[in-house]
Design brief:
The structure is a homodimer.
Chain A (H helix, E strand, L loop, with lengths): L11 H33 L3 H32 L3 H29 L5 H4 L2 H26 L3 H31 L4 H33 L8 H9 L2
Helix pairs in contact in A: 1-2, 1-3, 1-5, 2-3, 3-7, 5-6, 5-7, 6-7, 6-8
Chain lengths: ~240, ~240
């Protein structure tokens, strides 16, 4: 499915550099996935200890971003990549920015966990949040997979998937607004739950960004401000 | 104040390319500033027509991002920049991502404007939002200025300024929560105002990101996950 000819470089070392960067991005993605998994678990189980671990662990994500960024700059300076290799480096630079920001949103979710949340989380809301978390986890996993396989079609499907998360977010928002109206004394606490849902919705947006970089990487075409429907046809011949 | 020796390139054409990119970034920044100005005016005056213009105009910001991105990729491919020139290109690529996202947040503010908002906006909240908008506008203006002059000290000050916006955001949030508790029927509308304030708070975060790229550009040091206090000393000798 890959359109990139990673085997055709003059220098073996260059190949290794690029492979190293790709695998580091996936490593960073893995850390973010683990953080997300834990943050959602902390939120729905109101687990303070786990939430604190997530907040603390965000430095790992940040450190990987800085490391990969430096590696990319080094590659551009030393290897002077052209065409698809340069696209790969550019896509990586943008991808890790979004991965790091997903990490920030994960941290935001974890920060919303605290004792008072217990009263604000009905079983229904808890299940809704858990389900939304599952959707975001799946989206993140799928986009990392599309990146790993430089699969534009899979990336396209990820970009489409974001709509499901947006719908879920609207449903949760409506429920939370009803709760606030029913029990105004709970407003500050329920707002925290709303912020957590909002953070998850933003993660979906960022996964969509990454999906667009994968399409750029494969097609050499910037689709960031193009509706998926409008470049779908180009993926058929892929 | 600039540490970049933009005059020392082998090729005159290269100089011109870099200058072109720098001026396009400032042009993009100018469009975002204008959009922000209008969105805040639309919000506090509940001006639907102006809000619609802002939403429509966001395509200009997006188009500039794509254009500058392509220009940067072209420069890297053709001119194979090293050292400080490469840093400039990398800083530009990251800066325009954040500028585009500020544009998205501006659009979010504009989208919150609608008829029902009238009832939710007390004179006090209106003034608070206007003031918060002034702070964000100032921060955006200052960071673009720091970028234009590649002034790390000014960028450092911008990064510090974000704290003021965060405080303002907390004050507004508290006021809005009180309003919600007093009149639960207004909750959905007041939440819209809260989203607008949140969007402005995020703009501040993104200005801080840009400030960090300017520091990176000048000092050649990645300060994204470093507290401003911890690199302040290095700016003294600047």
């Amino acid at each position: 499915m890959s359109n990139l000819n990673l085997g055709e470089h003059i220098s073996q070392q260059f190949n290794e550099d690029l492979e190293e960067v790709r695998s580091k991005v996936l490593q960073m993605g893995g850390v973010v996935e683990e953080q997300l998994e834990r943050a959602i678990s902390a939120l729905v189980n109101n687990d303070n200890d786990l939430a604190r671990k997530v907040v603390k662990n965000d430095v790992r994500v940040n450190a990987l971003e800085v490391e990969i960024d430096e590696e990319c700059t080094r590659i551009v300076a030393r290897r002077q990549p052209a065409a698809s290799d340069l696209r790969l480096v550019m896509a990586v630079i943008k991808t890790i920015t979004d991965l790091e920001r997903i990490g920030d949103e994960v941290k935001r979710v974890a920060k919303m966990v605290h004792e008072e949340l217990e009263g604000a989380l009905s079983e229904e809301i808890r299940q809704e949040l858990e389900h939304m978390g599952e959707l975001v986890k799946r989206m993140l996993n799928d986009v990392l997979d599309a990146f790993a396989r430089t699969d534009a079609k899979a990336a396209f499907e990820v970009a489409q998937f974001d709509k499901k998360i947006d719908v879920k977010y609207m449903v949760i928002t409506r429920h939370l607004m009803t709760h606030m109206a029913q029990d105004p004394s709970q407003i500050p606490t329920i707002l925290n739950v709303l912020w957590a849902a909002r953070a998850m919705e933003r993660m979906g947006d960022r996964c969509e960004n990454i999906a667009e970089y994968v399409v750029y990487l494969v097609l050499g075409k910037d689709v960031r401000h193009v509706k998926p429907e409008d470049y779908e046809a180009e993926l058929i011949d892929d």
